[in-house]
Amino acid sequence: MDGFFGEIQASIVYTLDNQNKVSIVYSAIGGEEDTLFNPTCHVYFNLSNRRDLTTHELQINSDHILETDEYLIPTGKFLAVDNTPYDFRHFKNVESVLKEIKGLDTAYVLKTNLAAILKDKESKRQIIVHSDRNGLVVYTPEKIEGQNISFSRDKGALANKNEGIALEAQTLPDAIHHENFGDIVLPRHSKQSYNISFIFKND
Questions:
Q1: β-strands 35-36, 8-16: how paired?
Q2: Measured at the alpha carbon of residue 173, what is the angle toward residues 165 and 150, in degrees to the nearest 5?
Q3: pLDDT higher than threshold 80 for residue 98
Q4: In a 3-state reduction of DSSP, which class is residue 152?
Q5: Mean pLDDT across the chain, nearest whole number?
Q6: What are the pLDDT digits (tens) for 20-69?
Q7: Would residue 146 be called left, alpha or beta, if left means φ above 0 and alpha means ψ between -120 and 50 degrees?
Q8: 62 CB neighbour count, 10 Å cutoff
Q9: How far apart are CA 25 and CA 196, in angstroms?
Q10: Residues with catalytic roles
């Protein structure tokens, strides 16, 4: 699949509990060849009643992002977020950052299993993201024209640019080429599982 060598048996289990926590468990069993396994969830969040992110604030437990080349391929270097628009160590308005850097497609190096918290100041809704991985890719659809994307909440209307934000917990991208990024190899006949959870609160 997608040009990767080897075959795997994969499963995804979603669990919703009574505390509004959605847990996702990705599991795979390797086949006859070693291969790669680095799954994630690309769900978009918009916690407001608006069709933009103007009232959203984001906090990420990360001191560094990955440097990338012109094709968004990681170079192998970690860049400190100090004194940059990418510093979300304390809650920051998302829309103000998007205006400054024209969209996010950024891999953060996580420090803890508590990856990020996204909250909306108007509705008081928030999403808390936990992960057993070392990376979080934050993405906003800055260039959405012509992609025919719509969100169910918009009742068929085409999505606005940056109407939602994706928080993709995973092992750091391109880990196979950078030994300090983490191990995404699934050895033949072995099993691997990864966990992500999203907790919804309305305080």
A1: unpaired
A2: 30
A3: yes
A4: helix
A5: 94
A6: 999 999 999 999 999 999 999 999 999 999 999 999 999 999 999 999 99
A7: left
A8: 25
A9: 7
A10: 42, 168
